Queue: 3 jobs
Job 1
Amino acid sequence: MCLRKRSGYRPPDLLHAKIYTGPVPAERGGDLVMGGGRSETSALGGPGRGRGTTTTQNSQRPNACCFCWCCCCSCSWNEEERRRRRRRRRKSQDTNLETIPNCEACTKPSLEEIRLWSQSFDKLMRNPAGRNVFREFLRTEYSEENMLFWLACEDLKQEVNKSSIQEKARTIYEDYISILSPKEVSLDSRVREVINRKMQDPTPHTFEDAQLQIYTLMHRDSYPRFLSSSIYTSMIHGGSRTSSES
């Protein structure tokens, strides 16, 4: 006898089959095990409790460091990525030049002074007019906070009053160190940990390591581009033209 007749087997009618149009059951996140993990299911006992709770072990988790909000985060973001994020964030703010704090008071630099700025970064930073021009360039690169932080640290070093030191140190921390600030500067985790310890009893030199790191960053990253920027080259050409006419 045919096996189909004995077992009562009947082939499916594909032509007249009905398509299910009911609601789609929700996906169970616990059933997806990533990284070769193991899924354990324990049903809750008792009447009317047909559903169980699913726990997944060894599943792939997001990198906690990238989502942490503590001040000692060990994430190491490169400066170029930070600049892109600042550019996207500040384009929506429509910052006008009138809203930016005034630059340092200084006299108009001579052509000789302007040329000295290209000899070394130290000579540029020692000159008030040079700092103003360099700050203007950093503003175009959305990294002006580096110069503002350096200037704030220099101002803190001149302070002798204890209460003023604490007030200025707290302001610097909130404006440039806190990861919640839009003007946060790029510092590694080691320097941040040092600052967090020193902030318990601030001194004029609380941010000394951070100031050196930002100074080095501006020297290596921004200064070479400044020398070839239109801001600096136009000053050189304008000064040369003036001297030749006189």
Note: The mean pLDDT is 74.
Job 2
Amino acid sequence: MEPAEVEFLAEKELVTIVPNFSLDRIHLIGGDLGPFNPGLPVEVPVWLAINLKQRQKCRVIAPEWMDVGKLEEIRDQERKEDTFTRMPSPYYMELTKLLLNYASDNIPKADEIRTLVKDTWDTRIAKLRLSADSFVRQQEVHAKLDNLTLMEINTTGTFLTQALDHMYKLRTNLQPGETAHSQDF
């Protein structure tokens, strides 16, 4: 799966907006949205929130977890734990990127939020690389990776599967008791 596909999935997540227009319910394949009344919060998918924001038809309200204090706690907990901690959203990285790219003027302390999410991401990716390295060195057969997000799996998935394929080929070519054939001249 490509990163763009993961971002597409993230755009289906709901976010709260405050519209500045009136509109009755709209009926979409994915479900009904609205009604939209000026000044009254309503939940919509991220893709619609971005579209309305670009047309200056709403103000986006940051998700509850997109707060400097909460993100500092998440970052600190991730740094303390050896295992992966549960993230506030399965699409935390993609939502942060989308919302801060298109609605940063509606999100307080946007730069600090961006930095905290990036710090958390870097910590988790480093932890994932260490886990993969340990997995390969110990010649494990399977691994349990709880609390990883789709984008994190996507980031290292190709590398890890290729490494495991190479390890399998090496193991099957040199079984115990067999010797490598050298070329004698």
Note: Residues 110-137 form the longest helix (28 residues).
Job 3
Amino acid sequence: MAVTPEPGESGEPGKGKPFKLLGILDVENIPCSRDSVLYGSLGSVVAGLGHFLLTSRIRRSCDVGIGGFIVVTLGYWFHCRYNYAKLRIQERMARDGIKNKILYESTHLDPDRKQTNSNSSH
């Protein structure tokens, strides 16, 4: 008897349910979310521990740690998403340029052909 995998399970290891942080943020499929959370947690530890070492106030250090997490996570999120959007625009421009090059190559609309024809007639 062959066992068929259930719809939620696939035969590949590591391809189960996606990991969702707090049940809402899918860190596997949303670009920049994984790195933002990792750097935010590191910023939280550094800010909270640094404040505790300087002041020895536990409650205030926890507040600073949470603030550090929010600031670093949002800061890295916006930085990463900006670079991601810029990269997507560059990819789209390159894809359109390649498509136009293929479409207009060897036709009378080809800009390279117009330049070579005007140079050879002089």
Note: The radius of gyration is 26 Å.
